[in-house]
Every structure is written in structure tokens, then in C-alpha cells.
Specification:
Length: about 120
């Protein structure tokens, strides 16, 4: 594998493994050996499905605004905010009026995200 294969662009819609998570919620996935990145795009007012998984997850709001649902709390987030979601904590995201874009980081990588498809996987 060329080292060039290890370089990507967060704004290139054709880069990464595409997955539709829910209506108006898509992601592009970049998987390594010990970590996985997911660039999630949410249409205005779109919402993911409440779900959980054993992997630790960090998120960064790159653009827009949203409500982060985590455990039994709803927390407003703005561009630049980031958070940690421990494994097995129920969570989702609800985009604001202009939509949102989130960078999620998983460790270890989520097996169900190593292939194209749809849905969040674990619920």
C-alpha cells in the first residue's frame, strides 16, 4: 500500500466508505488498526437513532449546531465543541436548523462500520 493511501480530505464527499445511518444522516468512514474516524453529515433537523455500542467514541462538531443526546441528558453543542461517549452509553444527535457535521472517533474500530451499508449497527 502506498503512503498516499493513508491521506484523506474531510471535505471530499467521495473519500471514505459511505454509510447511510438514518433519514438525512450519512457518514464517510476511515478505518485504521486501532481507531476509526467517521465524518457524519446531518440535514437540517435530522436525527439519528438512539443506540449504543461497546466502543469508546469522541465527537467534534465541525459545522452547524445540534443537540447531543447522551444517557438521559440533552446538551446543546456548537461548532468547536467536543465530547466523549463511554462504551455502552445510549446516544444520538439531533441537528439544528442549518444541519450539522460531526467528526466521530471510535476506539477500537467498530466492526459493523468496516463495510458500506445502512443503520447504526448496535442498538
Amino acid at each position: 500500500m502506498s503512503q498516499k493511501d493513508e491521506f484523506h480530505n474531510i471535505d471530499d464527499p467521495g473519500d471514505g466508505l459511505f454509510r447511510e445511518l438514518a433519514a438525512g444522516v450519512t457518514t464517510r468512514i476511515f478505518s485504521g488498526e486501532q481507531a476509526m474516524l467517521s465524518v457524519v453529515t446531518l440535514a437540517p433537523h435530522a436525527q439519528g437513532t438512539l443506540h449504543h455500542h461497546p466502543e469508546e467514541q469522541w465527537g467534534v462538531l465541525l459545522d452547524g449546531s445540534a443537540i447531543r443526546v447522551q444517557g438521559d441528558e440533552e446538551i446543546a453543542v456548537k461548532k468547536g465543541d467536543f465530547w466523549r461517549t463511554p462504551g455502552n452509553v445510549p446516544h444520538t444527535m439531533r441537528a439544528g436548523p442549518n444541519g450539522a457535521r460531526v467528526l466521530d472517533i471510535f476506539s477500537p474500530p467498530r466492526p459493523e462500520y468496516r463495510k458500506a451499508g445502512s443503520g447504526f449497527g448496535t442498538t
